[in-house]
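So, does this match?
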Amino acid sequence: MIIREKIEDREAEILSKHATLSMNSKGREKEEKQCDIRPCFQRDRDRILYSKSFRRLKDKTQVFLSPDGDHYRTRMTHTLEVSQNARTIAKALMLNEDLAEAIALGHDLGHTPFGHAGERALNAVCPEGFRHNEQSLRIVEKLENAGKGLNLTWEVRDGIINHEIDLTPATLEGKVVRLSDKIAYMHHDMDDAIRGGIISEKDVPESLAKVIGHTNGEWLDTFIHDIIATSMGQDDIRMSQEVYEAFHTLRKFMFERVYTNPVAKGQEGKVEEMIKILYRYYVEHVDLLPDYLKEIMDRGESSRERIVCDYVSSMTDRYAVAIFEEVYVPHSWAVL
């Protein structure tokens, strides 16, 4: 018996009856020979981790635009914290930790430069609209690997597209990631906001603190423990009613005090205009796009506008600014 089969048998022996077993995966769009060591979800995790799209997350905004300071979160550190939350919950509930980790690592691959400001800009100018979860799926299915895609399993792709709060993943592991994403960003965005002097833990209403704790660390601990306790042995992933209401109250508080704070978000108008300008520029200069994107367009698989969205959304913060300056900012004249 090969190593992968031994691991799959072990999954069947020890995981919850509600877990998604690797041996029961619905498979990949393109059939391929299985690895002799790694089960399919572990293999998907590795493909995402080694992708260019994943590496670019290190230079994409989480909440604060290009902050000064080494300790503010980026889209990559957010992704790693989501992954850690998801692995902790999945392991405690005896779910498939590899599947949860793969979904978590891939869920934000489609995010634009400058976070949700960039997403709003592309959604406003592209006739087909733009949503980062849909772009994440498009990346793993079509764009990564120079237009070949990553050929991930159905379960991982389902978890990626359905990680938004108003959507429902088909697996419990996907549901774990969906909640892990929300509690991760509220935890670290609060931490960053405190570091930036925008808010303090004492600003959280006492009625809310009595339920989830008085410190940022206590809030994260409360949410994770509550999800585990409430979901144990169940065919669903959820919080208790009291903590779920507190979760939404804290989320509303974060939107009022951090996510729409004029100090933290004062530069977003400039960002949105810059992204819109870059989009329009490349619509008129599609010949400047990478060859694999032009080939997708030439085959009739995607419109010009969608291909331009693919390119602009893939940019890091730094690269988007550099391209904008190169195209639109005059350079000093010099005699060579």
User: Anything to note?
Assistant: Residues 53 and 109 are 6 Å apart (CA to CA).
